[in-house]
Amino acid sequence: MANTTADKLQGVINSKAALGQVISSHGGTVPQTFAGYPAALGNTIDAAAQNARLVAFDDINSPTYSGAITFRNSTAIRNYICYGMAYVTSVSAPNATSIGNYAFYGNTSLQSCNFPKVKSLGEGAFYNCRFAAISFPAGLTSIGIRAFQNCTHLTSFESNTLPTIPDSAFESCTQLTSFTATSATSIGNNALYSCHALLSVNLPNVATVGSDAFANCSNIESLSLPAATNLGTHSLASMGKLASVNLPNVVTVGQQAISYNAALTSLSLPAATSIGAYAFRNNPAMETLNLPVSTELPNFSIQSARALSSLSVPACRTLTTPWGTSYNVNYCSPLLVSLSLPAIETISARAFGRSATQIFTPNLADLYIPNKTVAQVKAMANYATWYLPTTCTIHASDGDFTYGS
Question: CA 298 to CA 321: how far, in whole Å?
Fold first, then answer.
């Protein structure tokens, strides 16, 4: 057999061999058999050998192979190089600085990884792998979308060099319990979606939280995002055990951003000025809501806030059907007995009820509108169809009167 690497690779391709022994880039021969099976590219794959991937790795999914791969000289692991190689148990790339798109997709037996110099991961690089831990000592500077998606055995991740966590990067990592990315300033859509075991999150510098970023993380009890300014749609939704959040700098709250959280008891957003529809929908245990600078309480924003007893919206100028437009007893806030609207200018029709007999705040006893006189309150648009309880006392700047009077 010829002695050039190209000739050796061609011999492997022609024989449609499976992964077996070692081809060196500088000498040696290609064995014809290995452990009774056709031979091939071997436990060490050089950068040159990567070119033969599509044919030379044809049979790697057969149960005849189980073992390790070392990319000895490669500085860049190519896209799809080990795609679907379900029986590889360990991979080492001592000189690689980057790993391409879907390079190790579906390597479900992969347990050990050695990437001492890698700083960049492509899209889906480790999608659907099963290792419990992985580290990048050189410090990751970028990872592609879906880089670790569905790595269902990964238990922790830590980085102090990543500037961003992209879309679906860790989606459905169902055994992930802790996540730290101290340098990240954004976390993308679905980035940690359905990480059911997640307990601890450390993201001190994240400003932008994408849609569904933490949605369905059902075991997080407390979440602090001190630098966050923007919450995307559903970003903190359906988090079953979430009892408290720290969001001191959030300005924009997307639709249903903090919704369907059965354990959340209180919420304060001291900097929020833009609130999306349904923003706090179906938080049935939420007792207090504090929105000191928001000028609007929009549609459906507090629907199903069954435990709500304290609602603070001192800057609110517009109240737009916050409990919704259709009536159900579960949509109501029966514990809310007092509400102050010192800056209010507009209250929409059906703001407090669907009708005179279907009232969302059935026990509201006191409504304070100190910026208007009695006459001005009664002259406000939609006054007759606010549908307050008829016994509710409205406190105006020049006197008090009952809504039913």
Answer: 7
